[in-house]
Structure formats: C-alpha cells, structure tokens
Design brief:
globular, alpha+beta, 4 helices, two-stranded antiparallel ribbon, 7 strands, single chain, about 25% strand
C-alpha cells in the first residue's frame, strides 16, 4: 500500500508540473548499488550486471526510482534470470534491463507506459500499473527516451537512453 501511495504522489507531482533538479550523476555506482540491493531482495532469480562509467545530468533519487521500477518489473515476470547493462553509445548513457519471462506483445509496447494499463493475464496481480508511467516521466525529465522490445531470451528488454555528459 505504501508503494501505491508513493507512486500516486509521484504522478500527482508530475501532473502539477514538477521539474526535477538535475546535477551531475555518475550512473555506474548507482546502478551497481541498486542491483546489489535488488539481488538480495529477489534471490529467486539470477541477476547479471554489466556496467561502465557514465555521467548524466540527473536527479539521483529519481534515477534510483527508475531503476527499481524496471528491476521490480523484470523480477516479477522473469522465469529465472534478469540482466542489467549500462554502457555508452553515440552520446547516450544506455541502460538495458532484460528478463527471460513472457515478454511484451508488440501491440502493447507503447500502451504499457500508460497509467493503469496491464497487457494481459500473465501481467496481472496486485500491482496498479503505475510504475512504467512513472518511469516514462522520469526519463522525460532527463531529456531521454524509454522503449521496450524483445530480449534475446524471449522476455522483455527495456531500453533507457539518457544524454551523456562529455568527459571533463
């Protein structure tokens, strides 16, 4: 219940026009820390992490929330494994979260970012369908983009691109 209230509050803030304050954030330690915590919280699935140094203008708390949303989704639908990869490419810090679950049907890949949407019976449960809409808002606040596709394992692959800061 507390998570639902937190998510509703985040969406209310987004609706009111709240803009995040962005500062330099080094993503590698953030990704590594959240993944360590998630592996402890979700011991039922194997978590593979591959991350490199990448700095963005960001809100550290919001980016942490974004990664937790993607990881919670991945662990919820994974059969046995979740993967996280952070790398840089063509001016972007690219974060990819994959699972080996049932995936997201192509016709639902945009709708899953809408509030309260649930794709199908395999993706039901006690969850309100708010997490991915919050994820989309967080990514938009960072001038990035978020998409979902199919992982090589057959599950879902969430891709987040955030503008990379040039090395100093």
């Amino acid at each position: 219940m507390a998570r639902l209230v937190d998510r509703m509050l985040t969406l209310a803030q987004a609706d009111s026009g709240l803009e995040l304050r962005l500062v330099v954030v080094d993503l590698k330690p953030l990704v590594d820390e959240v993944c360590r915590q998630a592996a402890t919280t979700h011991p039922e699935a194997k978590l593979a992490v591959d991350s490199v140094a990448a700095s963005v203008d960001g809100d550290e708390d919001a980016l942490r929330q974004l990664l937790w949303i993607l990881l919670d989704n991945a662990f919820r639908y994974a059969r046995s494994a979740v993967g996280v990869r952070l790398f840089t490419e063509a001016g972007w810090a690219r974060l990819v979260v994959i699972d080996d679950g049932t995936g997201v049907a192509a016709e639902h890949r945009e709708q899953i970012f809408e509030r309260f949407f649930r794709a199908d019976a395999a993706r039901t449960g006690a969850h309100a369908g708010l997490g991915l809409s919050i994820a989309r808002w967080i990514v938009a606040q960072h001038r990035g983009r978020i998409t979902v596709g199919a992982a090589n394992s057959g599950g879902a692959a969430f891709l987040v691109d955030l503008p990379l800061l040039p090395p100093s």
